[in-house]
Amino acid sequence: MGETDPKRVSFELMSKASALAEQMQLVPAALILGGDESAAAKMAEYGAAKAYVCQDERFSTMYATPVSDTLSSLIAEKQPAAVLFPATGLGKDVMSRVSAHNRLGMLADCVGVTVRDGSLVATEADFGGSLLVECACVGPAPHMLSFRPNTFAAVKRQGATLQVEKISAVVNDKTVVRIVDRIASAAGKVSLEEASIIVSGGRGLLSIDKFAMLEELASVLGAATGASRAAVDAGWRPYAEQVGQTGKTVKPNVYIACGISGAIQHKVGMQTAEHIIAINKDPDAPIFSFADVGVVGDLFLIVPRLTAEIKKRRGG
Q: Which residues, 6+ apart, have CB-to-CB distance to 272 below 8 Å?
């Protein structure tokens, strides 16, 4: 699915859909709800050969009912082989509704998908990420799969010819769901999924107030703040900042892990970062086995000094 200004996860899924379609000799398509042909053109850069576009004003709020109703109708008409969803709040809501409405199976939070003997085979991480399970997509199509943001690379494809088909919205007028209010996140805060730099903290921070120094470091770097599950479970950070198997999957240029041991559950959420910097007083912490730069020492001394040095070099 796309939107007026498609997010990176839309490009990631379009890239993967295009690769799968090529292997299965199918046509990769994008669904643009609320956007226009300019959004469709952006999706074409990542492999869309066809785009279904609906500019109905009812998609301005982008809640699940009109999206799932319209998608269900489109599925019944076009009979696609598979539909890839982003494992976001809206994506999960829509996929479950479409699955129930059309009596179709679904695989959620997949970490990979490939084509084998002409059929889709998805990979899911079970038991806290310690076991990878392959699931063959059988039964009636379309097969519905969701993937977390940053699961795939967004790869531009050259020479794609886009066919645009305008569709009408199909909305159940009897719905009782409506948006009554929206509360925006803090102004200027960097999105975890979109951030190029992330500063994360774990159990080693010891208390909620110690995260202030990580926020300061993130501020001077223009970075997002993240946290391990231990820090979130302790109530030190909101769930929206959790990185890992039961949180978010991120893919920044730089990931700075402070006081995080590097358990497998956290690793699966950040291991694809281009550069991983770990600060931990335990020289045997698992995170050092896959970090690009490891600093063994007291983070309460190291982080403030790092922040001060960055400020100095930037003239702050």
A: 150, 249, 251
For residue 235, give both structure tokens: 């109530």
pLDDT single digits (tens) 17-71: 999 999 999 999 999 988 788 999 999 999 999 999 998 777 776 678 888 999 9
Q: Are residues 162 and 26 in the same domain?
A: yes
Q: Which domain holds residue 31?
A: 8-166
Residues 233 and 117 in one domain: no
Task: Starting at the earlier edge strand, list the strands of the sheet with 131-136.
Answer: 82-86, 143-147, 106-116, 119-126, 131-136
Q: Is the pTM of this model over 0.70?
A: yes
CA 158/CA 257 separation, integer angstroms: 37
Diameter of the chain by CA atoms?
62
Query: How is residue 225 written in tokens?
Result: 């703040």
Are 12 and 161 found together in one domain?
Answer: yes
Specify the number of domains making up the chain: 2
Which domain CATH number covers 227?
Answer: 3.40.50.1220
Residue 117: half-sphere exposure toward Cβ, Cα within 13 Å: 4
Sheet holding 29-33, edge to edge: 29-33, 50-54, 163-166
67: domain CATH number? 3.40.50.620
- Interhelix angle 299-313/211-221, rounded to 10 degrees, is 20
> Pairing between strand 163-166 and 224-227?
unpaired
Query: Tens digit of pLDDT for each residue in 4-28?
Result: 578 889 999 999 999 999 999 999 9
110 and 237 assigned to the same domain: no
Which helix or strand (DSSP H or E) is residue 293 part of?
strand 293-296
